[in-house]
Specification:
By secondary structure, the protein is an alpha/beta fold. It contains six helices and eight strands. It is flat.
Length: about 260
């Protein structure tokens, strides 16, 4: 199969050859019989549209012209599609991959999907440390697809979590944690968003040519896991000096002090 054939048989038969003098000699005849792999000539997706169809197209991982052995690959294809639809908010989806032999090694593959009822979000609750306004968090979440009445999509949950961690980091909470907990109820599923901000690292700067606070935080590379060590501060100062040297401030000297505040 690795060479693009469904099977390859070697047939060895007794044979007779004549030598240069015309005398018969015992020999063997070796024949190779190969059967090309069945290949997808047409791929039909039935029963899906919109966001669900995009998920199926990506998860099915089949394309026209590809070799396909239904006996071993159809089950795996069905599993991939079901898992993707479940992650996208269709936990009751049913999938069947069927094939029709159209002759000459050509297959028509039909992916039949029954999406079932989508799992809708009944409520989004925000708890934990109140360091960013709930109004902002709800606005970001709604824009990324996590809101009451929306389908529960794993991708949207990841996007919201990443967005919150990014915003918390920008505001100085470098070691923050965000957990999204699912609670099933009669109306669908409730999403509880729990924020643990942890200690905050605040930056203050003075001097000419320094980057803005967002860029400075990236250049410093400091994380708040307790008070920064003297070595960490020296390394951070060196990175800022390198950053400034690249922009023409070759004699810049950077000093960083750390003070613990409440």
């Amino acid at each position: 199969r690795a060479g693009g054939f469904a099977s390859a048989d070697v047939v060895v038969e007794p044979w007779v050859l004549l030598d240069v003098g015309g005398n018969p000699r015992d020999a063997v005849r070796v024949s190779y019989r190969v059967l090309p792999s069945p290949r997808i000539d047409r791929l039909d997706l039935v029963g899906v549209r919109g966001a669900a169809r995009k998920r199926v197209e990506k998860a099915i991982d089949l394309e026209r012209g590809a070799a396909f052995y239904a006996s071993s690959e159809a089950i795996n294809a069905e599993r991939r599609v079901r898992q993707s639809l479940n992650a996208g908010g269709w936990p009751e989806a049913k999938v069947r991959v069927l094939t029709v032999d159209e002759g000459e090694g050509r297959l028509r593959v039909r992916v039949q999907v029954d999406q079932g009822q989508p799992l809708e979000i009944s409520e989004v609750r925000i708890g934990g440390d109140d360091v960013i306004s709930k109004r902002k968090i709800r606005r970001w979440s709604r824009k990324l697809g996590l809101a009451k009445g929306r389908r529960l999509d794993a991708s949207a949950q990841k996007d919201v979590k990443d967005k919150l961690l990014e915003e918390l980091s920008y505001r100085g909470w470098e070691d923050s944690r965000v957990n999204l907990v699912r609670v099933d109820d009669d109306a669908g599923v409730q999403v509880n968003m729990l924020i643990a901000a942890g200690p905050r690292l605040r930056l203050a700067r003075s001097g000419r040519g320094l980057p803005n606070l967002r860029s400075l935080r990236e250049v410093l590379g400091l994380r708040h896991s307790g008070a920064p060590t003297e070595r960490a501060l020296e390394d951070a100062a060196g990175r800022v000096e390198d950053w400034m040297a690249d922009r023409g401030f070759r004699d810049a000297k950077i000093t960083i002090d750390s003070t613990q505040v409440k």
